[in-house]
Amino acid sequence: MADEVYLTAEGAEELRRELDELLTVRRPALAQKLKEAVAEGDLKENADYHDAKEQQAFLEGRIQYVENVLRAAVIITNDGSTDEVRLGSEVTIVEDGGGEDETYFIVGAAEANPREGKISHESPIGAALLGHKKGEKVRVKTPGGEITFKIKRIK
Questions:
Q1: Residue 151 pLDDT > 90, yes or no?
Q2: What is the dotted CATH code of the domain comprising 79-154?
């Protein structure tokens, strides 16, 4: 994992809530499930036991990941400056030559979720937009070829 992980304040809060649920709800429930599976006897052929152990490994891995992300987090602040695209910016772009407006929120990789319009500053579009101003055209190399976007709005 990188030394610094960029998160919005909302993203950090969401991870803290997830970690709290993992530690206070899911871990104890899984421990109980394991205890019950062990009480059934022969562990070699006990599907419940093996399933619970697998879930436990995943859960502990997720807990460790979330703790590491929060420990290394650099909180992105959006101070309202809208002159150029940076981490924390909300950017509305349109493909050169027409098309519908697309709005993206530029976030760190740990928080990226393209379905929610949150793209990483390391993604092809996110990286290409960084540092550009409203009205500028930006060329982006994507797996599907090169696309040119015009920046319509930065918040």
A1: yes
A2: 3.10.50.30
